[in-house]
Structures are given as C-alpha cells and as structure tokens.
C-alpha cells in the first residue's frame, strides 16, 4: 500500500506544464511551397523567469534532415521580437524566414532573456539551451543540428557571434552577423563611452564595461576569437551611428589573426538596420547571406 502511494504522481507534478524536453510539439501550419511553421514552442524553463520559446520554419518534408539556421533577434538586448529580422525585411512577402525554408533550410527564431530579466551570460546560456533542445528533438523536427549556422542582427549578431565562439555542442558550421557589436566593449567609440552605466552594453553586462574590463572582455566577441571558430560573414553599414562599423572590422581582424575565415562586407552610406540602403542592396545582402549559409552547410 505504501509502495502504491509512493508511485502515485503528486498533485504538483500533475498541474505543472510538461517540461519542454517532453512536451508534445504543436501542430504545424502548412504554407506555400510546403513550408511548415510551429509557433511559440517552449525550449527551456528558467527558475524565476518566463518560459523561453522559439518559432520554427521547416522546409517541405523530405527524407533528408534539413540544415538549421539559428536566428537571434536584435533590440539592444533590452527588447525585440524573435520573428523580426530587422526593419527592412518586415514588409517582405514572403518573409525572410519563409524564403530560407523554401530554400531547404530550417529556421529556429529564439527568445532569450533580455537585460531587464537577467544579465550576461544569461543570453548566451539561453542560445546554448536552445541548441541543446533542438538537438534533443531533431528527429521529430526533421532537422540536422550538426549543420547549423547562427544568424543574428544588431544585439542578436553579438549573441550569435558569442555562441559560435563559445564552443557549443554540436559545433556551428558558420555565423552570419549583421551590424553586430563584435568588437571590444571596453573601447571608446563615437556616441559610446565604456564608462557610462546607462548604455545598453552596461545594462546587458550589469555594470559599465570599463569598470570591469576582464568581465567585459568575456562578452566581447573579438576577444573570444580562437583557431577552431567556424567561418564568419560580417555585414555592416559604414555610416552606422548606433553600432559603429569598427566593431565588425575588429572582429574580422581578430578572426583572421587566428586563421579563421572571416568575410567582411560593408555598405557605403548605410546606417544601422540597413537604413539608407536601396531595396536592391538589402536584397543583395540577404542573398549573399543565404549563399554563405548554404555553402558552409554543405
């Protein structure tokens, strides 16, 4: 009798939602070209925080698992939406993620904890957790996480770069970074003081970067470059006043110094978020980024 009572589930275990590792996947919505979407899928539970979710864009079903793009949104680490690739792609029809899926790439668009919820390295930890969950559920999803590219814009580019440089499991095949803060966060730049405790960088770190340089360097992609890093594509506007183009130049130089392939493309006259670029230039950036991802994914 006691054994039966011990085996009976507790009320607490019954009322709590299933853990993301075991929860049933939602039904997929089928779109044009057989592209399937799964929205709001929990991938991690963090004590004291909201459940972290992702959206999935999956190509038409085939017998071969699809390579993966892990997309990380921007928003100064303080805001943003996981399904937003930046202001110049919001009116595209089909949208950027549907385009990637139509080309045979699965896309996972991630939530991560914002700086008002947790400070660094929580954001990068969340990306590692998402990759772990996607690997765990890969057979159900029809994806191959051994062929993954991280793709991020702005603050998401910073986090995507750090994910690629912090030896995730499985290792990434490449990283696409759009106008991300990839340089030394302790370096003074136009419109940015590393001593200011109210910058987005300081809020992300939990302190002004210059007040603790060793800690800030752990969050500086250029300081984390190593010879085993995957290839990078860095694209940046030369007139960016929010995240100066020097960030991408520094990261490219640091990667090349380690013998890592780093392709740097800059857009003259272009501001943050591709403002100032023509529609043809934005389409070209996207096409080059897709071509890079397809190439490194094999």
Automatic annotation (TrEMBL):
Gene3D superfamilies found in the cross-reference section: alpha/beta hydrolase
Keyword list, A-Z: Hydrolase
UniProt keyword Ribosomal protein, yes or no: no
GO MF term (any one): hydrolase activity
Record-annotated BD-FAE-like domain positions: 54-255
Region called Disordered, residue ranges: 208-227
PANTHER family: AB HYDROLASE SUPERFAMILY PROTEIN C4A8.06C (PTHR48081), ALPHA_BETA HYDROLASE (PTHR48081:SF13)
Name of the protein described by the UniProt record: Alpha/beta hydrolase
Species for this entry: Actinopolyspora mortivallis
